[in-house]
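Researcher: Can you fold this with NDP in place?
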Amino acid sequence: MGKSALITGITGQDGAYLAKFLLEKDYQVYGTFRRLSTPNFWRLQYLDIFDRIHLIPADLLDASSIISALKISQPDEVYHLAAQSFVGTSFEQPVGAGEITGLGVTRVMEAIREINPGIKFYQASTSELYGQGNTESLSEQTPFRPSSPYASAKLYGYWITRIYREGYGIFACNGILFNHESPLRGMEFVTRKISNAAAKIALGLEKKLALGNIESKRDWGYAPEYVESMWLILQQEKPDDYVIATNESHTVKELVEKAFAVAGLDWEKYVTVEERFLRPLDVNFLQGDYAKAKRELGWEPKVKFNELVEIMVKEDLSRWQRWSKGERFPWDAPNYPNENKILSRMLKLDR
Ligand code: NDP
Ligand code: GDP
């Protein structure tokens, strides 16, 4: 019998890929999900693993549901991926960011401390911790300077993880993962927003794409490779924190240029920059240094920028081609309203 793992946030991009990875390693995989008015198990269905997962209802705002999830699953390892994960939304719902993305970590750690402190714990930390003002590669030694409610909630989660490690001897680790993307990425993130728009425009289903800060640089990797690093981090002899990245960074403008080229389009004919997609504070540069992960975990990225963009645009093209022929779901694209319909407090309303 293999080990048992509990993944919080199994319905998200990383949760789905990690579940698949752990099933292939012969784990019993348990995952928490929230009751929503419309169920969203499409990623698990897309990867064809839905029937092999044990689902447990739990919300990070409800400590008792997390305790139940641990009692039911009795895991060897907890991968804490659940969070309000979108920086833009954290400016619109900053208190929620703190409650869910910050305090949620303490609720899980407390449950582990009380139920079984021998459980290993992975915290989904992020390159957003580094914040603004950097121009050089970022490593485990670089100081953090968060620049969004999301990042400050994640900073709290990062430290709680270390405090439970150092204070209670729990095997608790931070993976400081730089942006990682895939065809299962949420539609609001810039990579998927662009790959989806390029595909739709190429097929005549959409006319234009509005973006925000296209000079911003990110270190984008491929999510299925990044979930392996989460598992490797929990297999080490000692708990520790690791940067996971590709060591390359590219601007959003380069991304849009490449994505539209894959779809056979000249991006400059279709893309506009609109103020409503600019953030009150933005992080203009993120580029990691994964030397420690390579040295200690033996982890290295294989898919780099160009290949990643190709994978995403080709998948969205294929989905929209199938959609045009009548196929519906389980992928998410048609569910999402056009962003023009969404009123944000970041939109300056002249009233
Ligand atoms: P997603 O947004 O795709 O998934 C987030 C998951 O959290 C979903 O399953 C969501 O459930 C769940 N969730 C949100 N709020 C709650 C709540 N109140 N209670 C219980 N569950 C909740 O994120 P990713 O998979 O991309 O990221 C996984 C983790 O890694 C996140 O913590 C993210 O912040 C972090 N991270 C991600 C990076 C990336 O580039 N992808 C980079 C660095 C860190 P539902 O489906 O119901 O909304
Ligand atoms: P983040 O790094 O977690 O914030 O990931 P995102 O994919 O949301 O954003 C990456 C960068 O792209 C940020 O600097 C954004 O400001 C920038 N960006 C530019 N236009 C857009 C847009 O239309 N949507 C999003 N989500 N980001 C955009």
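Model: Folded with NDP in place. The pocket of guanosine-5'-diphosphate (ligand 2) is lined by residues 87-88, 128, 179, 188-191, 193, 211-214, 216, 218, 252, 277, 279, 282-283 (CB under 6 Å).
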